[in-house]
Amino acid sequence: MKLRFREDGPIVIDLPEGSRFVLDGVEHTLERPKLALCRCGGSAKKPFCDGTHKRTGFRAPPGRLEVEG
Ligand code: FES
Predict the structure, then answer these.
(1) Which helix (H) or strand (E) covers residue 2, if one does?
(2) If you ran DSSP here, which 8-state letter would residue 53 be given?
(3) CATH at residue 21
(4) Residue 55 — φ and ψ, nearest 5°?
(5) Is Iron-sulfur found in the keyword set (predicted)?
(6) 3: alpha, beta or left, given left = phi > 0 and alpha = psi -120 to 50?
(7) Which atom of ligand 1 is nearest to the CA of 43?
(8) Are 60 and 42 in contact (CB under 8 A)?
(9) How far is the CA of 56 from the centre of ligand 1 (A)?
């Protein structure tokens, strides 16, 4: 699994096409093979990014994390 920390933005998780996830007991199928998770704390749709970070001036460095195994 690869996590991308977008500069001044969310954590993006790249997933295989057709991936699904369960949030609070409800299963969802992804329209796009990625999830963008809020790391600024300002999203009204937590845990997902809703673009609020652009308006609040959130600053954070870019980065990548790869998990194997
Ligand atoms: S990182 Fe986008 S709303 Fe928080």
Answers:
(1) strand 2-5
(2) H
(3) 3.40.5.90
(4) -85, -25
(5) yes
(6) beta
(7) 3
(8) no
(9) 9
Give me the domain span that covers residue 10. Answer: 2-66
Q: Kindly give the confidence (pLDDT) of every residue in the chain, 69 residues in length, as a single tens digit, with 9 standing for 90 and above.
A: 889 999 999 999 988 888 888 989 999 888 888 999 999 999 999 999 999 999 999 999 999 999 898
Distance (angstroms) between ligand 1 centre and the Cα of 24 equals 20
Closest CA to 36 of 56, 16, 15, 17: 15
Instruction: Please tell me the residue having the least CA distance from ligand 1 atom 2.
Output: 49
Number of structural domains in the chain = 1
In whole angstroms, what is the distance from residue 10 CA to residue 64 CA? Answer: 12
User: Ligand 1 mean position to 50 CA, how many Å?
Assistant: 6
CA atoms within 13 A on the CB side of 7: 0
